């Protein structure tokens, strides 16, 4: 089990590196995926309307004027997701009043299992300001594609499945424009600094 979890983390980190390379303007090849090339300002993000863990609708229009950080994952994730959400929770605590100027979103890549009720239960272990989002398979896939998220379903030995996915937090400004990322297990002080800059509308460091 320990080796399996380690492999999942390594796979997610590798996927995250691919996405970061694409953001930096490089050409990236991934198995069974088309070539991705970007240049100039990264085209990351897009419109959405999903359902929160409280069963309410939330759209990109609702966030207009508010910077936000968004992480894609799933509640059955063994290590990457809980680690990232815990680190974001710690960062929000350290931000003080600046934390109230931003939103932190956790978008489920597994809407078949991640109902609003399950998201609510799962997120109760983290900072209450983190907003969980789920929706239809189609809506989730469309949004993940807009954020250049890598993910794939992986069957497990017990007949169930898990997901390999990008391990990146995307930072979006008050206009919904991409400004940067937080890498998986990036240093605590760097995460806090990036979120503080986001909250204050300052250029990414």
What can you see in these coordinates?
By secondary structure, the protein is of the alpha+beta class. It has one domain (2-200): 3-Layer(aba) Sandwich (Glutaredoxin). The chain has five helices and nine strands, in the order H-E-E-E-H-E-H-E-H-E-E-E-E-H. Helix 2 packs across helix 5 (188-200). The longest helix is centred in the N-terminal third of the chain and has 22 residues, at 2-23.
Q: Determine Rg (CA atoms, Å).
A: 16 Å
How much strand?
A: 15-25%
The low-confidence runs, each spanning 5 or more residues with pLDDT under 50, are 1-40
User: How would you state the average pLDDT, rounded?
Assistant: 85
Distance between the termini: 38 Å
- State the shape: globular
CATH architecture, please?
Answer: 3-Layer(aba) Sandwich
Give me the number of helical elements.
5
What fold name goes in the CATH topology slot? Glutaredoxin
How do the strands line up in the largest sheet?
2-1-5-4-3-8-9
């Amino acid at each position: 089990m320990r080796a399996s979890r380690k492999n999942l983390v390594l796979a997610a980190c590798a996927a995250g590196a691919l996405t970061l390379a694409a953001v930096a303007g490089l050409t990236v090849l991934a198995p069974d995926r088309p070539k991705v090339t970007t240049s100039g300002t990264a085209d990351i993000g897009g419109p959405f309307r999903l359902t929160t863990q409280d069963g309410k609708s939330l759209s990109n229009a609702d966030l207009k004027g508010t910077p936000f950080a968004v992480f894609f994952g799933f509640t059955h994730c063994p290590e990457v997701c809980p680690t990232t959400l815990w680190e974001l929770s710690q960062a929000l605590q350290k931000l003080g009043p600046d934390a109230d100027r931003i939103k932190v979103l956790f978008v489920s890549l597994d809407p078949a299992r991640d109902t609003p009720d399950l998201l609510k239960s799962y997120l109760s272990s983290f900072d209450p300001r983190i907003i969980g989002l789920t929706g239809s398979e189609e809506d989730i896939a469309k949004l993940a594609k807009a954020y250049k998220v890598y993910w794939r379903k992986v069957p497990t030995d017990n007949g169930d499945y898990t997901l390999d996915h990008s391990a990146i937090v995307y930072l979006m400004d008050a206009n919904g424009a991409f400004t940067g990322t937080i890498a998986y297990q990036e240093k605590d002080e760097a995460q806090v600094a990036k979120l503080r800059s986001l909250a204050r509308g300052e250029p990414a460091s």
